[in-house]
Amino acid sequence: MAILKNLSPTLTVLSCKDPGSSNMAAPSTSFNCEDFSEFQETLRLMRTIDDRIIHKLNTTLPTVSFEGKVDATETCKQLYDSLMEAHSSRDKAIKTCIAQTSCVVSQLRGEREKDADNLTLIKQLRKEQTKVKLLQSELNVEEVVNDRSIKVFNERCRVHYKPPKSQ
């Protein structure tokens, strides 16, 4: 779906939008790719499960004396499924925003070729290029967060649950 975005009284840019991008994570979460700070805050909230994984493991996995009272295998499986869902949702959100912003950059480059002296256009192009770089750096942050969570999960749950080899 194309969206027309008015950047100035004389400049209109056609941006790309994935029709399915509004529902890419938890149903209650929506993403604003245009405002990077807001998007980053949304990602921070979505990373809560990763930030609290040690506490979650400590409070849900039984110690040796309580092993019979809690199904550690099921607990670990549920936690793993939640982690994978969160990781997938964030990855999709970041990649969707990168694709949308890259499309805007392409449109702006096309406009710049037609009107190389338009300073508003050049300024907007630089802004969008910077946003693409920031979004790409979020993919690196996501990789570190995911690796840390999986490492902690494996340290505590390896005896109780073996995740599928796809990860």
Automatic annotation (TrEMBL):
InterPro entries named in the record: MIX23 (IPR019171)
Family: Belongs to the MIX23 family.
Identification of the protein by name: Protein MIX23
Pfam families attached to this UniProt entry: MIX23
